[in-house]
C-alpha cells in the first residue's frame, strides 16, 4: 500500500462540495474518502501525483458512474412521484369507503324510520277504530238508556192506570137521599 500526497490540491480547483454541482458532490466525497483511506495506510514512501492526472482520473470516474447515478436518481424521483400519487388515490378511496359507510348508516336509519312510521300509522288506525267503536257504544248506550226510561215511564203510566182503575172499581157508598 502506498501513501500518496497530492501536491497543491488544496490551492487549485474547487475544494468544497458546495462549489460543485449537486450530483457531483457525492463523487467528491467518495474521492476524499479514497484519499483518506490511502493516507491512513502505513507509509511506504512518498509519491507525488500530478494534479492533471488526478483531474483526469476524477473526470473518468465521474463520466463512468454519473450517467447511471443520474438515471437512478430520475427513477427514484419517478417512483417517489408515483408513490405520492398512489397515496393520494388511497386517501380518496378511504374517503369513499367512509362516505359509503355513512350512506349505509343513513339507509339503516331510513329503514328504521319507515318501520316506526308504519307502526305509528297502525296505531293511528287502531285509535280511529277504537274511537268509532266507543262512539257507537255511547250511541247504543244512550239508546238503551232512553229505551229503559221509556219502558220505565210506560210501566209507571200503566201502574197509575191500574191504580186509577182500582179506585174506580172500589165500591162507592151510595148516596142516600
UniProtKB/TrEMBL annotation:
It comes from the Eukaryota. Keywords: Cytoplasm. Residues 1-26, 139-177 are annotated as: Disordered. GO terms for cellular component: BLOC-1 complex; transport vesicle. It holds the Pfam family Snapin_Pallidin. Residues 148-169 have a biased composition (Basic and acidic residues). Its main location: cytoplasm. It is found in: Cytoplasm. Belongs to the BLOC1S6 family. Component of the BLOC-1 complex, a complex that is required for normal biogenesis of lysosome-related organelles (LRO), such as platelet dense granules and melanosomes. In concert with the AP-3 complex, the BLOC-1 complex is required to target membrane protein cargos into vesicles assembled at cell bodies for delivery into neurites and nerve terminals. The BLOC-1 complex, in association with SNARE proteins, is also proposed to be involved in neurite extension. May play a role in intracellular vesicle trafficking, particularly in the vesicle-docking and fusion process. This is Biogenesis of lysosome-related organelles complex 1 subunit 6. It comes from Seriola lalandi dorsalis.
Amino acid at each position: 500500500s502506498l501513501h500518496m500526497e497530492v501536491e497543491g490540491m488544496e490551492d487549485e480547483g474547487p475544494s468544497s462540495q458546495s462549489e460543485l454541482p449537486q450530483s457531483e458532490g457525492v463523487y467528491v466525497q467518495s474521492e476524499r474518502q479514497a484519499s483518506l483511506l490511502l493516507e491512513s495506510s502505513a507509509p511506504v514512501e512518498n509519491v507525488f501525483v500530478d494534479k492533471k492526472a488526478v483531474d483526469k482520473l476524477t473526470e473518468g470516474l465521474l463520466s463512468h458512474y454519473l450517467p447511471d447515478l443520474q438515471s437512478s436518481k430520475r427513477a427514484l424521483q419517478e417512483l417517489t412521484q408515483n408513490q405520492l400519487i398512489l397515496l393520494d388515490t388511497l386517501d380518496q378511496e378511504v374517503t369513499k369507503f367512509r362516505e359509503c359507510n355513512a350512506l349505509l348508516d343513513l339507509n339503516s336509519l331510513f329503514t328504521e324510520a319507515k318501520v316506526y312510521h308504519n307502526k305509528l300509522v297502525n296505531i293511528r288506525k287502531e285509535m280511529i277504530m277504537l274511537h268509532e267503536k266507543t262512539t257507537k257504544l255511547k250511541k247504543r248506550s244512550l239508546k238503551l238508556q232512553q229505551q229503559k226510561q221509556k219502558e220505565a215511564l210506560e210501566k209507571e203510566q200503566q201502574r197509575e192506570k191500574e191504580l186509577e182503575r182500582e179506585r174506580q172499581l172500589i165500591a162507592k157508598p151510595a148516596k142516600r137521599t
